[in-house]
Amino acid sequence: MSLKVIFTWWNRQTFGTFLKTLFTGIFVGKDELGNKYYKNKNNQRWVVYAHNVEATKITSDWYLWMHHTIDKIPEKKNNQKYSWQKKHVENKTGTTERYYPTKIKKNESKKKYKTWK
């Protein structure tokens, strides 16, 4: 374990979380992004992120498990249930991959309806 893990919370986990995981953590599973999920005897649940700490890196199945909505541990084979579902992507705000809407041309009307007069 490096010194930056001990003194910074944004690198995977804090020192306190490391000790909690070491002494009371029961490994439950791992998602496709590499995040590891743990619980203890009191049914407290937590995640150790694979890289930088970002809450939007938790997939929807594991989110439900983390917040005690479901008790069944998500399975890996259920990654894509329907053909119309997209793969989970973390929040890209503040990065170069952010969503940026296309600009509306000046001649093009913003309204799709006519207002009453």
List the defining traits of the structure above.
about 120 residues; alpha+beta; three-stranded antiparallel beta sheet; 3 helices; 3 strands
Number of helices: 3
Span of the ends, CA to CA: 70 Å
Could you report the average pLDDT, rounded to the nearest whole number?
Answer: 81
Widest sheet: strand ordering: 1-2-3
Q: What does this entry look like structurally?
A:
The structure is a single chain. The protein is of the alpha+beta class. The protein has a domain at 3-78. Helix content is 19%, strand content 11%. It is built from 3 helices and 3 strands; from the N terminus they run ααβββα. It has helices at residues 3-7, 15-24, 60-66; strands at 26-30, 36-39, 45-48. It has a 3-stranded antiparallel β-sheet, sandwiched between helices. A hairpin with a 5-residue loop joins strand 2 (36-39) and strand 3. The radius of gyration is 21 Å and the shape is elongated. It starts with a helix and ends in a 51-residue tail after the last helix.
